Amino acid sequence: MPSHNPNLRSIYAMLAAAGLFSLMDTAMKLLSEIYPAMQVTALRALSSLPLVCLYLLYRGAFKNLLQVRWPLHCLRGALGVAMLTLFAYGLKRLSLAEAYSLFFIAPLLITALSVLILKERVDLARWCAIAVGLGGVLVVLRPQGGDFLSLAGLAVLGAAACYAVSAITGRILSRSDASESMVFWLMVMMAAGGVALSYHEWVAIRREDWLLLAGLSVSGFLGQLAITEAFRSGKASSVAPFEYSALAWGMGLDWLLWRTLPDEYTMLGAAIIIASGIYLVRKEAVHVESEHP
Fold it and tell me: How many Cβ atoms sit within 10 Å of the Cβ of residue 2?
């Protein structure tokens, strides 16, 4: 790796994370065709818990797991259940590329919520970028009569909103709680909530789906490690835009498994949302460097 480019390793890590999370979402989409959305949420959390526990054991982080702010952790758990359930419901009816195009609104929502909840300052240019991104969502949804304005599309937008609120909650929690505690309790609460809410409609796991569940667990766990590594050593403004490479992964997997590709409206809307998101990342980097050169 060239010594003059310290961000290169982080960019590679982000590209790997986008690919791994796309594989995880593919597994969720395949499972959602067979199992109820709430059960898919439970399976996602339950399959990840063993690897999370092994990781915490390796890090020696179990001793501080009870020293947390329980109300905020419970809120994140509820948001996690809602997010994954809505996303699984959307994936059942939309392609990966369509779902990603809508979910990319999440960074814009996080910026807007940071003003309302964290009292951060956002200038007019960034508000304009958020408005442009919302316009991109309207292009993808095609409210003038297209079939894409559906419960599935709205479910993915709801998942993005839950993710945004969860991210803001995570920022608040990070001031006092260890990141290992945040990951562990999020998985535990999503597993418990998912099982409790899907118990009445639980479908027995088919033998041929156990390998799919293993892939769901491993891809999600490795993806989380990769994205953590990407932001640990890289400059956020250089690394974050590569998260949008998930759209390319989604298009490739859609074609490989389902022989579908997004139409021109989805691509145009995704381009608008991605452009506004990248602008916000770059604008934030300039703002931070001007305050802390």
Answer: 6
